[in-house]
Specification:
Length: 279
Amino acid sequence: MSMSLRKILLEKCINERLLKENQYLIEGIDIDLENKTVSFNSTHENNVDTSTLINPTYYKLNSIDVISIFKRKKTKYFQLDGNPLIYALKGINNWKFKNSEQDIVNLLKQFIRISEKIKSSYDTIIIVPSNNSLNVNFLYRLNKIIKTQYQITDYFDKMTVEDVFENFINWKKIKEDFKDKYDDIVKSLSICFNSMDTKNNHYFSYKYIKDVNLRKYITRTIHSSNEKTIDYAIHINDKNILILDDTIASGSTISEVCKEISETFTPKSITVITLFSKL
């Protein structure tokens, strides 16, 4: 028997033993489009891979170190911002769990196992603002496993739709890039902003701008609390910082938050952790 074949067989035996001992669990989700329900399935890794075998995932986003607990996968129905599992967790778009109690237990079980694999230590967690409680619940669960000395939940706030539209869109650059199509772009963005104004409690959200190429013209979507800068400096300066958000889509919000922290404070390091990875 060749050395290469012997190595393959050995690795196969090791993997089978680990699976048998339940150290690595494979688990994906099933999506029922008709009934708008999601459920966990231990026979595949489709839609969202929540297995302990490959998670957490580590990657860089615009030179920022990112850790994601669960790996999102593309489907023909949901792209970039959307996934039914995220919707069910947030309680939005009429999505829910098929078996709420069992599915939540399965998700939490995997979340704990995967989070325990993260060996790095951090001093302070800073939460990215959200319109629902998912980020707060994520913080609560994560900090039981990755214990930090301090958690900041109120330094950043989302901007209103009106504020972003009137003050933080680079209309000049749009005109330069699109020239005779400028009016069409203005109309398209106006529709997006009107939609998020009525459907998102008047707060800005990138997910309503379906043309991702237009997102780069938005220069600011969050604001920080100047009054709390001095109070939080002791917890951020020369500290290893963990920025927490539920999902990465284009990475615009995360980049904005990291830039703001770097320009205002002097952290030793900045790492982002998300519940769901980028696609």
